[in-house]
Structure to design on (781 residues):
């Protein structure tokens, strides 16, 4: 039925579409309103169809993300209808279970069940509301309806290191709050719970796991209620003991709400120790729920105000600001209010003069979110880069995919290199340049020792000796995580990207011999090119191409195929175009990849049926996959083939995948990665060479965009205008950068911060703008 319905939608779209105006960009422009920007954000976007976002309360880059868990592996799923608890830690958009520590749930009556899958409370979406820093829902106790007599109202808000809950109970002498220390989204290892006095509960929770197993990590919490409880108890396993103050499962505290029906509680979190949680509570607690909620809204209003857009319809504006909201959720503060944090060496350190951040989904974020944050949040981005350097100096190695205080070693390649070289090229590493370079050089030229939890470039010995990573089917590393040998083809391409941008950093710092060496290695992608097929293919240890020659079925690519990885050579697209056979052959290949003829004729069907088959449909595909990281920059390859208008065609159609519904994200958001793509594509700027300073240009979907580009020293603004941009008039006719004609398809970061204005003239047909050979982004040499 679903397939038939979607085909019928495609047929309707085909009738309505015309050859040149089919690709929807935005509805007719409307006047900008003076609404608060937070009113344009819908945190429910991405909570269905494996977008894996969360609707709960957080502040920008906060340590705490207080949100409901419904039974989905990563927290909340909009299709589910029972809440197991409101827990403290969630990573927005990840594809593997993690976090969910200390699910707290209000109930009434006797406490008889200790498994939150059994005592989970029913709820209805009609009782849910969410906005930046705030969430509420009505829970049914099974008596009297949701949120009414017999029901419980739950509200959540947050500061950086605390989550604040307000529960409105029915009139009862048995209003309970359950604090479940032994259940979470991750795999719990150990838990303890202590009831202190008549207002406070303290927990210590140790867990592990992600996509693969990890070393254990520990979080500490302390929860303080706004009034004394009348009874309490704890549980171990299924045994509940009234009056007990300690346990290893969880605890309940009880209130009499026959007269005063409201209970408030503040929970502080620390990754250091119990004293850290208590200190965070002292520093950020003590305020009413309403005061914390108002402060959270103000922090979000200020953060979102770095971008102001005009034009576009209400739906486009909501999806845009909701995406911008998701961009600012991570990485997350990792140090306590006193500056202490737990390093990757397991020791306690102190952040002096900066905020220590954690949670590094680098394979995802280096491509879009990290460059965007460097533009819009440079102070925080500097601290994030310093934090990564501290990880290297304290643990001995740079991170790959870090959660909290541990390395997960998930995904492929060397994503930390473009992450840090991006910070360098954006001017954010003053005083840390050589420290960063030493760590990057060690990572690029070696392999972590056996005693290190890091895998790093585990295939480096073969890569350095052979010029490529051999594909070893099913290879498992000696440490938890993904081995690059198991994905030799994509690992080779990722290593080459990192070598290219490291060469640029080395040259800028005066390390010329290193620069030449890394630049030469960056061209190693050619070792994978099979002239017989015209595609990249995995090689085995003997040097032979391996697996089926069909580029949609060949092995060795992580979450993709050769079709999708063929454009992952941002450091040398001119060289890749030459390998394919020149501009004409490359354009034919791109047109096939994007199903370009169908895109113009029937964009709805092309997007929903040809491109997107499901949130995890990574393999066996010969077309563009807009919902996964390897393809994020692919539409911008047309900037290097003399047909830049096709970039706009593809990008604007891909933007229609972002809607203001729970299923309005295409694939996992991966800590803001896909949301950052939405933001960048919407304003017409994209980091086409991640880890460097090159920004590709396409037509914005808004008539005016005002960006606040504070480089950490001098506040600057950039106003982008595209009068009349629409689904009909979407093609660039000319560009003025700072009032001067600009014929190239890219700008540098320095230019973005200095030109002040970027003005597009658009029209209904492609023009000669950007088609000259010298207009394309140059290769990194």
């Amino acid at each position: 039925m679903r397939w038939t319905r979607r085909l019928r939608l495609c047929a309707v779209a085909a009738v309505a579409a015309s050859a040149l105006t089919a690709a929807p960009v935005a509805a007719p422009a409307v006047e900008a309103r003076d609404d608060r920007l937070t009113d344009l954000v819908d945190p429910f976007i991405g909570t269905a169809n494996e977008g894996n976002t969360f609707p709960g309360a957080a502040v920008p880059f906060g340590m705490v993300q207080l949100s409901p868990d419904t039974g989905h592996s990563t927290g909340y799923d909009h299709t589910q209808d029972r809440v197991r608890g409101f827990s403290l830690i969630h990573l927005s958009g990840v594809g593997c279970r993690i976090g969910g520590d200390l699910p707290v749930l209000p109930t009434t009556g006797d406490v008889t069940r200790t498994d939150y899958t059994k005592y989970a409370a029913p709820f209805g979406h009609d009782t849910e509301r969410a906005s930046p820093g705030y969430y509420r829902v009505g829970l049914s106790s099974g008596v009297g309806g949701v949120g009414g007599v017999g029901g419980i109202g739950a509200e959540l808000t947050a500061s950086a290191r605390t989550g604040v809950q307000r529960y409105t109970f029915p009139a009862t002498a048995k209003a309970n709050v359950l604090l479940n220390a032994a259940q979470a989204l991750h795999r719990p290892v150990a838990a303890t719970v202590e009831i202190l006095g008549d207002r406070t509960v303290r927990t210590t929770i140790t867990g592990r796991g992600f996509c693969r197993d990890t070393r254990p990590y520990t979080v500490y919490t302390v929860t303080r209620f706004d009034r004394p409880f009348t009874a309490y108890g704890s549980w171990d396993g299924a045994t509940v003991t009234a009056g007990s103050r300690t346990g290893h499962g969880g605890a309940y505290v009880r209130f009499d709400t026959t007269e005063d029906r409201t209970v408030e509680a503040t929970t502080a979190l620390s990754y250091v120790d119990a004293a850290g949680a208590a200190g965070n509570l002292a520093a950020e607690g003590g305020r009413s729920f309403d005061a914390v909620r108002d402060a959270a809204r103000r922090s979000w209003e200020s953060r979102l105000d770095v971008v102001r857009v005009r034009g576009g319809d209400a739906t486009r504006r909501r999806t845009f600001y909701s995406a911008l909201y998701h961009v600012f959720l991570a990485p997350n503060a990792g140090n306590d209010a006193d500056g202490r944090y737990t390093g990757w060496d397991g020791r306690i350190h102190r952040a002096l003069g900066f905020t220590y951040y954690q949670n590094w989904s680098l394979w995802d974020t280096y491509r879009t979110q990290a460059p965007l944050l460097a533009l819009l949040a440079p102070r925080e981005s500097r601290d994030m880069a310093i934090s990564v350097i501290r990880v290297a100096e304290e643990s001995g190695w740079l991170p790959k995919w870090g959660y909290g205080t541990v390395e997960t070693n998930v995904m492929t390649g060397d994503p930390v290199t473009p992450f840090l070289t991006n910070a360098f090229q954006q001017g954010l590493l003053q005083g840390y340049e050589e420290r960063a370079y030493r760590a990057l050089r060690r990572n690029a030229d070696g392999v972590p020792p056996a005693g290190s939890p890091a895998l790093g470039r585990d295939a480096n010995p073969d890569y350095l000796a052979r010029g490529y990573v051999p594909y070893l089917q099913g290879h498992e590393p000696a440490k938890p995580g993904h081995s690059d040998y198991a994905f030799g083809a994509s690992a080779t391409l990722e290593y080459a990207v990192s070598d290219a941008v490291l060469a640029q950093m080395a040259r800028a710092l005066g390390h010329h011999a290193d620069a030449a060496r890394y630049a030469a290695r960056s061209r190693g992608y050619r070792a994978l090119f099979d002239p017989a097929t015209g595609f990249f293919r995995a090689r085995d240890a003997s040097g032979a191409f391996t697996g089926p020659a069909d580029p949609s079925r060949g092995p060795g690519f992580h979450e993709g195929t050769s079709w999708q990885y063929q454009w992952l050579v941002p450091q040398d697209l001119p060289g890749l175009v030459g390998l394919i056979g020149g501009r004409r052959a490359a354009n034919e290949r791109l047109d096939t990849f994007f199903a370009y003829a169908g895109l113009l004729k029937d964009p709805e069907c092309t997007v929903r049926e040809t491109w997107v088959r499901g949130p995890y449909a990574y393999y066996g595909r010969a077309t563009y996959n807009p919902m996964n990281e390897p393809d994020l920059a692919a539409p911008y390859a047309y900037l290097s083939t003399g047909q830049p208008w096709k970039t706009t065609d593809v990008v604007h159609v891909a933007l229609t995948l972002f809607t203001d519904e729970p299923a309005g994200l295409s694939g996992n958001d991966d800590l803001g990665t896909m949301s950052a793509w939405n933001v960048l594509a919407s304003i017409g700027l994209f980091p086409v060479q991640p880890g460097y300073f090159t920004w590709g240009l396409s037509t914005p979907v808004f008539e005016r965009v005002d960006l606040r580009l504070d480089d950490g020293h001098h506040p600057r603004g950039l106003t982008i205008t595209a009068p009349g941009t629409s689904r009909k008039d979407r093609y660039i006719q000319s560009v003025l950068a700072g009032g001067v004609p600009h014929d190239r398809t890219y700008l540098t970061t320095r230019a973005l911060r200095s030109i002040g204005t970027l003005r597009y003239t658009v029209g209904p047909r492609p023009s000669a703008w950007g088609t000259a050979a010298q207009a394309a982004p140059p290769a990194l040499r």
Observations:
- The CA atoms of residues 534 and 580 lie 6 Å apart.
- The mean pLDDT is 93.
- The domain at 336-558 is CATH 1.20.1050.60 (Glutathione S-transferase Yfyf (Class Pi); Chain A, domain 2).
